[in-house]
Design a protein that fits this description.
It comes from Bradyrhizobium rifense. Keywords: Cell outer membrane, Membrane, Signal. This is Porin family protein. The chain is mainly beta. The chain is built from one helix and ten strands. About 25% of the residues are buried.
Length: about 240
């Protein structure tokens, strides 16, 4: 028994002495490279639909051409508007191009006392539509753009006295528009922005049957807040 115990002790000491050498002969742990970082870049390409709202001021000038001739005065027709837009954008590098159609209800109204007749000349814009092209430059999810195209406006012009309307003419007028906007992609597929538009409406003769004819000219300055939803993937991966 003593001989067996002595042999076991000697064997244990021998194994302990050789263990470091055996460990040194094991293969080194392989080095694993950390995963590459992935940056996400907002993609402005795709169809979108949205809503908008804001306010405007339409500078309106009346010049009578019959039966009298002369300036009747001018006023600013102011008020609010709400509507919607639909469009498509495509992105090339940081440049963004697009087309858009917009339609709005409006309530821009104002009046002035005629310098010729003493009547109150009143104008109102109750609707408008814009068909525009866009060119923009994107800093990831921030887009700055300019726009331009055609505009159509629904107007109503009235002659009033003692608070009552005695002659009115509804009119659809065509013109042009230019504008600029800043848009921010704040969530997948969603963006919010602000936009300025100027609408040019050339002068047009308006006849109030039985009373007078006026050459009426209008230009509209408008500010809008817009919310858009874009269909399709909002981001692309960039390694």
């Amino acid at each position: 028994m003593n001989k067996n115990l002595l042999l076991a002790a000697v064997s244990l000491v021998a194994i302990s002495a050789t263990a470091p050498a055996l460990a040194a002969d094991l293969a080194a742990r392989p080095y694993t490279k950390a995963p590459a970082m992935i940056a996400t870049v907002y993609d402005w390409s795709g169809f979108y639909i949205g809503i908008n709202g804001g306010g405007a001021s339409a500078h309106t000038t009346w010049n009578q051409t019959a039966p009298l001739v002369g300036g009747e005065g001018s006023h600013n027709a102011t008020g609010g508007t709400v509507g919607g837009q639909v469009g498509y954008r495509w992105q090339s590098a940081q440049w963004v191009f697009g087309v858009e159609g917009q339609g709005n209800w409006a309530d821009f109204s104002g009046d002035n006392l005629s310098a010729l007749t003493g009547f109150t000349d009143r104008s109102k814009i109750d609707s408008f539509g814009l068909l525009t092209g866009q060119v923009g430059y994107a800093w990831n999810n921030v887009l700055l753009y300019v726009k331009g195209g055609a505009a159509v406006v629904g107007t109503k012009n009235e002659l009033r006295a003692a608070g009552a309307t005695f002659a009115s003419v509804n009119d659809t007028r065509w013109g042009g528009t230019v504008g600029a906007g800043l848009e921010f992609g704040f969530a997948p597929n969603w963006s919010v922005g602000v936009e300025y538009n100027h609408i040019f409406l050339s002068g047009k003769d308006v006849t109030f049957t039985g009373f007078q004819t006026d050459h009426i000219k209008q230009d509209v300055d408008m500010g809008l807040v817009r919310l858009n939803y874009k269909f399709g993937g909002p981001i692309i991966a960039k390694y």
